[in-house]
Amino acid sequence: MVPMMRRSVVRVPRWRAAVLACLVLALLGCGSSQPVRPDRFYSLEPPVVEGASGSPAPVVLLVNNLGARGFLGGRAIVFRTSDQPLVVQRYEDLLWEDPPTRSIAHALVTAIRAAEVVGVVVVPADRARFDLLLGGEVERFEHRPTDAPPRVAATINLALVRAEDRGTLTSRQYSGEEPVGGDTPDAMAEAFNRLTARLMAEVVRDLKALKPRLADQPAAQAKSDDRFGRK
Q1: Which residues make Cβ contacts (< 8 Å) with residue 219, sequence separation at least 6?
Q2: Which DSSP symbol is given to 126?
Q3: 98: which of 52, 139, 197, 226 lies 20 to 30 Å off by Cα?
Q4: Whole-model pTM?
Q5: pLDDT tens, position by position, 64-102
Q6: End-to-end CA distance of the chain, in Å?
């Protein structure tokens, strides 16, 4: 007679069984959900469209960091819809590589240097002496996807002041819109770059018109030349 084999019974505590059941349900849920879209980062590097003309004013210009309020101070790409014009929204997975405030300040430096408006252009990190200070605020930099046609819009407030007494030489608001040439995020980013390039060209043209007044304070330019061994 063949003896019967005893079957061992493994008793699982109730709390462990509940945890295992939750894990199984979670795994099943993950398998049926949509895949998470990765974040997409865009660069704001507008081309230079205003070339050099004439001799540069013999001054040192500091392009300061730009300010902004709310989402514009970060890397979020902001948008508004026509049915909710007072509601500021941001895209969850579309971001700027750098905050627009930093990118626009860099675009100002690039455009002014390329146009040779002044002898030297510096930034705060240079810790250099300067004659004139250009700074301000990015007030608006947003996508309008429900406009007809869709467009991007920007408003930048800038002021040019003397370093010696902080007197204002000029102050102006630069504003504009640019149609978006498609319904893709890439088309939106390209429109932002075109618009920024156009606004930077306006700034450069205004500085060129001020050249006679910019040359009134050459002290920092001379000190900068001595420091770097230039005559």
Answers
A1: 131
A2: G
A3: 52
A4: 0.79
A5: 999 999 999 999 999 999 999 999 999 999 999 999 999
A6: 115
